[in-house]
Structure formats: C-alpha cells, structure tokens
Amino acid sequence: MSVWLLCALLSSLICQTEQDGHPLSIKEVNVYAETDIPDNGAWVLNVEWRDEFAENNESRKVSYDVQVFHTEQMSLVHNETVRVTPDNTTHHHWNWTSPIPLQCTSHSVRLRRRDRDHTGEWTPLYTYKGQDLIATKVVVYPRDHVFMVGSNITFCCIFKTVPSPDSEFLIGISNRTYITKPVHFLIPSKTTSDIPCVDKGGNEGGSSVFIGYPPDDQNLTCVTRDLSSVECHWNRGRKTYLDGNKKTIYTLNGRDCDFDKCVLPAVPKMTNWTLVAKNLLGVKILTDTADPTHRVWFRAPSNIFHAAYARNVTLSWNVTNYTSFPMICQAMLNGSIYNKTFNGLGLSSIVLVHLQPFAKYTVKVRCGSDEHFYKWGDWSEMTEFSTEEDIPEAVDVWIQYFEQNAYVLWKPLTRQQSHGIITQYSLTKGKWREIIDITPNTQCFNITPENERSDRKITVSAKNSAGLSPPSTIIVPGYPDNAVNISRISDGNGGFEMAWDGYFNSTCGYVVEWFPTYYETQCAVEWKKITECDHATFCNWKQYGIFEAGVKYTVSVYACIDDKPMLLRRREEYAIEQRPSGTVQNLRGKPNGRHFELSWDEVPLQQQKGFIEGYMVIAFHHDSKTPISTSVTNGPKVSLPLEPGSYTFNVSAFTSGGEGGNATLRMTIEKNIEQMIVASVVGFSAAILVFIIVTVLCYKKRKWLKNLLYPDIPKPKLEGKWNSKGFYCPQMTEGYMKCEIQEVHSSERPATAESLHGLDLIRSNSTVFPAQHSFMSKSPVLYPPLWRCAEKLTSIIENPSYNMSILEPVDVAQISELPLEMEDSYIPAPNCFQENVVVTGTSPSYKPQHSLQMYS
Ligand SMILES: *[C@@H]1O[C@H](CO)[C@@H](O)[C@H](O)[C@H]1NC(C)=O
Ligand SMILES: *[C@@H]1O[C@H](CO)[C@@H](O)[C@H](O)[C@H]1NC(C)=O
Ligand SMILES: *[C@@H]1O[C@H](CO)[C@@H](O)[C@H](O)[C@H]1NC(C)=O
Ligand SMILES: *[C@@H]1O[C@H](CO)[C@@H](O)[C@H](O)[C@H]1NC(C)=O
Ligand SMILES: *[C@@H]1O[C@H](CO)[C@@H](O)[C@H](O)[C@H]1NC(C)=O
Ligand SMILES: *[C@@H]1O[C@H](CO)[C@@H](O)[C@H](O)[C@H]1NC(C)=O
Ligand SMILES: *[C@@H]1O[C@H](CO)[C@@H](O)[C@H](O)[C@H]1NC(C)=O
Ligand SMILES: *[C@@H]1O[C@H](CO)[C@@H](O)[C@H](O)[C@H]1NC(C)=O
Ligand SMILES: *[C@@H]1O[C@H](CO)[C@@H](O)[C@H](O)[C@H]1NC(C)=O
Ligand SMILES: *[C@@H]1O[C@H](CO)[C@@H](O)[C@H](O)[C@H]1NC(C)=O
Ligand SMILES: *[C@@H]1O[C@H](CO)[C@@H](O)[C@H](O)[C@H]1NC(C)=O
Ligand SMILES: *[C@@H]1O[C@H](CO)[C@@H](O)[C@H](O)[C@H]1NC(C)=O
C-alpha cells in the first residue's frame, strides 16, 4: 500500500513536472546593471538565467520571451523574443539598453520559454530597484557623464513632490520620477552642460554632463636624437574637449606616455611603435615602423669653437654619441647657406674658405645622417668670429698734369678691398726706386720731374698690418701725347658715351678719364679702367647721372700700353646744356659805310653753360618798346642798316639750353651836315635834270610815252625776303657823326681781358695730355661758337647765291647773313625814299630752342 502510494505520488509528481515544467525550468534569474560603482547613470540591464529544461534535453531550437516594465506603473517598455544558439549550454545572458538611466525608476523583467510546440509560463517579475524608492533629495540622472557630440540624451529627475510647471521634466514614469524629451547635444561643451531640476516645493537638484569627442591623434613619428633612445611625436588632431580625469590616456608599446612625449630605448633594427589613445568616448590606435638609424634627427652641435685666419675659418665641436656615425653638416654664413656641405664619420669640424679678410661673420651649423638622410638637425647657436687682416688689393692708379706739375692719383680702397686698416701708401719713383711713405688719407701725390723729360715708372702700394698690396705701376710719359683733335659734342642725356676701335697694341686695357673743363683743381680727375672690351675690335663706355648740368667736361680715352697711357681720343662735352648764365662782354658799335656795326666779346667760358649756338640782336628806337629790328647771328658781330636816330640794342647769347641775359647798348646816330648839303645839292640837281629830260621827252613823244609813264622797276633779287617798306637810300645813311656807348647791361661782372685770354689759352690748347691743364701751346684756337660762325661766314661769302637747303640751320643762317649780303645786293630804286629800315625775315616769335634742333 505504501509502495503504491509512493508510486502514485511519484508519478503524479512526474506528471506535474511534465505539465508545468516550462516555468519551473528557468532558474537562478539575475537582473543587474552593467556597472554599479559610479551610480550616476547606467543604461544596460543584464539578465542571466539557467534553464534546467535544457539540461535534461538534447539541444533543440529554443527561444525566450523577455519583457521589461517600469515597475511602479507596470508599463511595458521592452518586449523581445531572444533566440539562443542550439547547443548544450544551459546558462543564458541577455542585455538591453534602456533609453533612460536605470537609476531613474525600478525596472522589472520576466521571461518565458518557447520551443517548437510549447510556450512556457511567465516567470515572476525580477526587479532592478530604482533610486526613486530611496532618494531623499532631488536627483537628476545621468550625472557627470561624458557623451559624444551629437548624442540625444533623456534625463530623469527624482522629485520629492511634483515638478514645477516650467520644468523640462514633464513625463512621469513613476510616483516620483519624471523624464525630459531627448536632448540633442550638437556642440562640445567647453566645461560642462548643466541640466537643472526644481520641484514645486523649491527643492533644487541638477546634473552636469560633458560633451566631447573621442581621441583623433594623428601622424605618429618616432625619431632618435642621440642614437640611444627613440622619441615619438604625434599631433592631437581634433580636440576632445575633455580634460582633467577625462583626458585622453596614451600608451606606447604598453608604456604610459604624456601627450607628444614618449621615449623608448633605441634598438637598431626595424621596430613597430604602437600608440593607443583612449578616452571615455573611444580609442585611437596609431602605428609607426622604422629602423631608428633611418630616423636620425640630430641635436644642435653645441660649444662650437672657431679658429679664423684671413680667408678661412675652422669650426669644431664635440661629438659624443655619434663618433662612428656617417654625418653630413652644413653651415649658414651671414644668413645664407654656405654653398658646400661637409660629410664624414662623427663629423666634428668643418673649414669654410673664400672668406673676406678683416670681416665679421656669424655662422651656425646643423647636421644630418649621411647614409639615410632623414632631416636636418637643429641649428647650433650663432657663433661670431672675425677674419684676420690680409694684404690689400692693388690700388687703381692714374696720373694728372696740372700747372706744370704731374700728379699720381689713386682711388681709396673700399672696405672690401683694403682687407684691414690702411696704415700708409708706399710710392716708388725714379731710377733708384726711391720709396716714399704717404699718409693713408692721401690719394694724390706730386711727382713733378727733376728736369728730366723721359718716361718715369711709378708704383703705388697700400699697406696694412698684413703687409703691402701688389704694386700698381704707371709709366708717366716724359712727353705726353699731343696729336689728338678735340671734338665737341653735346649729349643732352645727362651722361656721356664713348666708343672707340680696339687698339691692338693695348696690353693693359683702356682708361676713360673725365674732369670739368673749367674747374681747375689738382687731383680733381676721375677715371674708369676698362680691362676688356665687350667686342674684340670695338669698345664702349657709358656713364650717366654723375655729371653736373651746365658744366663742360673733358672726356678722354687712353690705351694702356705696358702701363703707359696713350691718348686715343678726347672730347669736350656737356652732359646737359643750360642757358648761358652770363651776358656777352664789351658790347660796342661803330658805323661802317652805310651800316652800323655792332660787335661784342664772348660770354665768359664758365658762364656759357653750353655750346653757344648764336646771338639774338634786337634793336629798339630809343624810348620805344617795340623792336624795329631782330636778327640772329652766329658770330660776335652784326651789321645793321639804320637811319640816324637814338637806338637801344639788346644782345643775348643762346645755347641749346636757352637764351641768356641781355647786354644793352644805347647809341645815337647823327647826320654829317656837309654831306647832307652836298647830298641835297646833288640830289636836287639830278632831280631837276631828270625833270627837264622827262619834260622834253614827254613833250616830244607824249603819246608813246603815255604807257611808259611809270618806268619798269627791276625786281629785288631776294624777293619775298623783304617787307614792303624796303630799304633806306644809301646816300642818306652814309655819314655818321657820333657814336657813343651809353650803357652796357650785364648780369654778371664781366671777365677781364686777361682772365678771358688766360682761359682761352688754357682751354684752346690743342696739345693734349692726360688731365692736363697747363702744358699748353700758345696757339689760340677758335671756340665752338666762333668757330662755327667763321665756318658759316666763309661759306656765305664764297657762295653768295647759296642754295638755302645747303645750310641746315635754316632760320638762323638765313637771318644772320642778311646784313652781309645786303652790301652786294641790288636795292630797288623806288623803295629808296621810304623811311623805315627793317631787317626782315625775322619772326618775332623766334625760338632758339627750335633752331637748336636743326643744328644738332
Ligand atoms: C510582445 O511581442 C510579441 C511578439 O514579438 C507579441 O506577440 C506580443 O503581443 C507583444 N506583447 C506586448 C505586451 O506588446
Ligand atoms: C555539450 O555536451 C557534450 C556532452 O554532453 C560535451 O562534450 C560538450 O563539450 C558540451 N558542449 C558545450 C559547448 O558545453
Ligand atoms: C550585450 O550583449 C551583446 C550580445 O548580445 C554583447 O555583445 C555585449 O557585449 C553585451 N553588452 C554588455 C554591456 O554586456
Ligand atoms: C537625435 O535626434 C535628432 C532629432 O531630434 C535626430 O535627427 C538625430 O539623428 C538623433 N541622433 C542620434 C545619435 O540618435
Ligand atoms: C504610488 O502612489 C500611489 C497612489 O498615489 C500609491 O498607492 C502607491 O503606493 C505609490 N507607490 C509607491 C511605490 O510609493
Ligand atoms: C649619448 O647617449 C647616452 C646613452 O647612451 C645618453 O644618456 C646621452 O644623453 C647621449 N648624449 C647626447 C649628447 O645625446
Ligand atoms: C599629418 O601629416 C600629414 C602629412 O604629413 C599632414 O597633411 C597632416 O596635416 C598631419 N596631421 C596633423 C593633425 O597635423
Ligand atoms: C610590425 O607589425 C607588422 C604588422 O603589424 C608585423 O608584420 C611585423 O612583423 C612587425 N614587426 C616587428 C619588428 O615587430
Ligand atoms: C687657412 O688660412 C691659413 C692662413 O691663410 C692657411 O695657412 C691654411 O692653410 C688655410 N687653411 C685652409 C684649409 O685653407
Ligand atoms: C670638448 O672636447 C674638448 C677636448 O677635446 C674638451 O676640452 C671640452 O671640454 C669638450 N667640450 C664639451 C662641451 O664637452
Ligand atoms: C662656392 O662659392 C665660391 C665663391 O663664392 C666658389 O669659389 C666655389 O666654387 C663655390 N663652391 C661650390 C661647391 O659651388
Ligand atoms: C704697335 O706697336 C708696333 C711696335 O711695337 C708698331 O710698329 C705699330 O705701329 C703699333 N700699332 C699701332 C696701331 O700703333
């Protein structure tokens, strides 16, 4: 009986087990949040259970329904069917991420088993307890959490009572808990983003969260700077906006590092470096692979020692760790890279050559690996050094003749040429090579010969503490050249140009020399040595911008033959012509036959300021402002046909630069009474005689003569040149009773005759020496204005009926020869009795500048 009972009990138990096995099979259910330490917000709800049923059965396709509720309101917040893999495990784990922190309110979970044909019973509720059950003050979740920019976060607040009406927390999920809508964080927070929470009773709480980015470090590069350790460097990339205990943590090959500063021992073989950058929002892994000896970035050479000579310097420094390492070094000298690099094993010194003596230099050095060049090391600190003195360069020597003396001149050496401080110049001369020491600021020395007229060899050297420069030799000719014609040219461009044919006997090039023609001071000569011409057969020199306007220069070219100059060409030139600054001198007048002749002396040479092109002569009636005669002449005189009266004459010289000031002369021209009576009687008699003849003829042949009442008048030869008033009768202008100079206006004190003569002599010598002012011949030569004038006069006299197109200076020539030609011209009789005398063909608006162009 008892056995049966036991049996029945057992079977019923088994049957019940069969029937209700499903709910019973789920055991050991455990519900927990993913972490429990920082109680500031947890979202993942983990559920673990063991299914006993599976233990007893072969593996089948099994799944579980899981439901999650907000416990207080028993509202279903998640419903899922979890499929488990078909194996013989009995332990299961599932997790779910809640949209709100699990602390906000209690969450309850229940499960049921489902297989092919059975759906089990729900388990009881397993609850993860919320903080709303125990919180004693206003609390907001999540708190002090880090979120990625762009996250949507739902906050909850656990109130003591109920939320205030303007609160963001409006959706109630339990008696005490209210949540916000999801808050979208678009920008990173500089410090924190705060969410306040106030309940109706005025109790406050709140939350701060951090919005940032995960690490974004880039460009990991590992280098060695001393061949014993490796430094790794990287860039931060995008900012994380997370600091303090939330900052990124770095590890390199497992070692903790600070940002951009990580040192590992160097192993001379291919090495992997792995950098892990990690913060609360993510991880970034960077790698770099290299042999450290291919990643050498030297530190700056330190303690550079220098040993400087005149033209080279040795720089040395100590090499400790790289003594057998192939190195390449370069230097920066005075701010530019020295054009040579240096290499060697453990290089510790370099030599810089081609330096300037007696100069200050700054230098710095850097090195790199020669075999596997990676990058230049750091520059060393700037080192200063000075080179020593060296002998000076040869001086540039020339000669000048001035007032019976000969001088040797030389150009002062520049800083670059002197290679030190010049202490003196040394000059040797004469047969016995007499040595003369000259103070350093002298550049000109009188070497006037001792009655000897032979070539003399002079050498000049500069001296500094290093010694004497190579000697510069010049041979001073005993008898300077004298057979060169001076040509006069006006450039007008502010400079001079010289071109000459190459002189094949020249052994040491050419010298162009210039000086102001009229300013005579010793040593005021400038020169330029031309060692080689651009072309073998043709040489050229130009110089602009250094010449004074209105100053005449003498420019000469010499060939240098075995240190002896030989004059090739000489010119006198104005770089820029100006109008004369002085007036013509000594203006005077005298009668000459039927004319009145004005003459004058030249404008003083220094006041000419250009080549005199001609003179403008204007005659006025006394006390009248209107000119009665204007003429232009090339030479220093003009002959004017004038009737007796009082006249004022203005004479001015002009150059291509313009017209100078006027010299003025006042004169009265009076008639001779006797001549007047004779002339009147003769004239009257002749008139009566003519009248009688005419009367008789008229009476005899009055009809025939009717048409000839007006006899033919011969046409003037120079028809068109004369105005209708014509010329005065010669008989009437013959006698001049009185000529006197009443006043001469001159803007400057006229030069004395001696000074003029002296200048003339000096300037007009045709014997030419280098820079010579005094070895002049006594044969005066005509100066440009006179000379030109003379040429013109000659041509006019020789060929009175010249064709006007022969002479180019149309206006000027045409006008200036009028008084001359007048004497030989036929003067038409009918015009004889007209009164005014006017030299015509002169335009009142005459412009000398215009005629200048025709000259040049
Ligand atoms: C849970 O989901 C299952 C299917 O996925 C559905 O049949 C069931 O009705 C859901 N339950 C609730 C309460 O929504
Ligand atoms: C499943 O069970 C068999 C025997 O019962 C065992 O050998 C095997 O290791 C189990 N597999 C797993 C994943 O536990
Ligand atoms: C949640 O479960 C998935 C697999 O279902 C797993 O990969 C993940 O690691 C789990 N998360 C946590 C926080 O345990
Ligand atoms: C956050 O919400 C906005 C709309 O409010 C949506 O456009 C965005 O995709 C959401 N971001 C995430 C990460 O879910
Ligand atoms: C929630 O409030 C209701 C009535 O307002 C009350 O019956 C219930 O016990 C409260 N629940 C908790 C967990 O306090
Ligand atoms: C040379 O290498 C040693 C280690 O071998 C290191 O301690 C030292 O700092 C290095 N010196 C220099 C100048 O790099
Ligand atoms: C990383 O290196 C590349 C190329 O060398 C450069 O273009 C880039 O700007 C670097 N990144 C940063 C963050 O400096
Ligand atoms: C470096 O890493 C690469 C791949 O990550 C691997 O193939 C190589 O063997 C590593 N080299 C060294 C020297 O560890
Ligand atoms: C440097 O200059 C000195 C003196 O001028 C000379 O003796 C030396 O040979 C020079 N050194 C080099 C490397 O040129
Ligand atoms: C460099 O080496 C010299 C000797 O060769 C020594 O006198 C000097 O002190 C060293 N300088 C440094 C910075 O090591
Ligand atoms: C460097 O410059 C000097 C003159 O400045 C020159 O003589 C020398 O030949 C140059 N050297 C190189 C390698 O260019
Ligand atoms: C060059 O010199 C030689 C004698 O040395 C002379 O015969 C010749 O005429 C000279 N040539 C010229 C162009 O002066």
TrEMBL record:
Secretion signal span: 1-19
Keywords: Glycoprotein, Membrane, Receptor, Repeat, Signal, Transmembrane, Transmembrane helix
Superkingdom classification of source: Eukaryota
Location relative to the cell: Membrane
Broad class of where this protein is predominantly found: membrane
Gene Ontology cellular-component annotations: plasma membrane
Membrane topology, record value: Single-pass type I membrane protein
PANTHER family, per the entry: INTERLEUKIN-27 RECEPTOR SUBUNIT ALPHA
Entry similarity comment: Belongs to the type I cytokine receptor family. Type 2 subfamily.
UniProt protein name: Fibronectin type-III domain-containing protein
Species of origin: Phoxinus phoxinus (Eurasian minnow)
